[in-house]
Amino acid sequence: MSFPTIQRIVTGHDADGRAVIVSQGPLPTVVEIAAIPGTVFHEVWSTSGNPVPIDNGADPTVGALMLPPPKQGTRFRFVDIPPDTSEFLARGATRMQEAFTQVGDAHASTVRADSPHPLMHRTESIDYGVVIDGEMTLVLDDSEVALAPGSVVIQRGTNHAWANRSSRPCRMLFVLIDGVYDPAIAEALQARTQPEAR
After folding, report:
1. pLDDT tens-digit map of 71-112
2. How would you label 131-152 residue by residue, b for 16+ Cβ within 10 Å and e otherwise?
3. Is residue 22 part of a domain?
């Protein structure tokens, strides 16, 4: 199964301040993740700074692929996620460093020997994840939730993975917003990642 090509329309202003179409067509940046065949990132837009400058600047999606949003910014993308395979589940953890390096955030992976899924990861951001087509399972440290089209996950910097336990790909829409952990949460997360004293 393949999903429709995403068409993007970007507006702007001409020299007289009139609204104009700056670009229209397929996304310029669509990348398949080599370590997870079938996983495709469709980069729609990103912003940096707050408040966001409203200008006729260059396309922010052209360049290196980055998982997290820019500092004080946002990232808007679609992700096509293939079904988990037994081979991926058995050997996936060994390839995650490669996968997260390709998406520009090698430190996002949190997978350990006892992780519930080989794609466990965390970013310091608020992420809105919407299932557009297909089925998905949100995997957390201690629980799971089945998702169907129209399900919306508000991911608040938590450790998680997206598990596709169906027989066909799933397309999700993500909006990532840069954030900062509350000091108490940051301290608890740091304590969890420290090796136990002997």
Report:
1. 999 999 999 999 998 887 777 677 787 888 899 898 898 988
2. beebbbbbbeeeeeeebeeeee
3. no
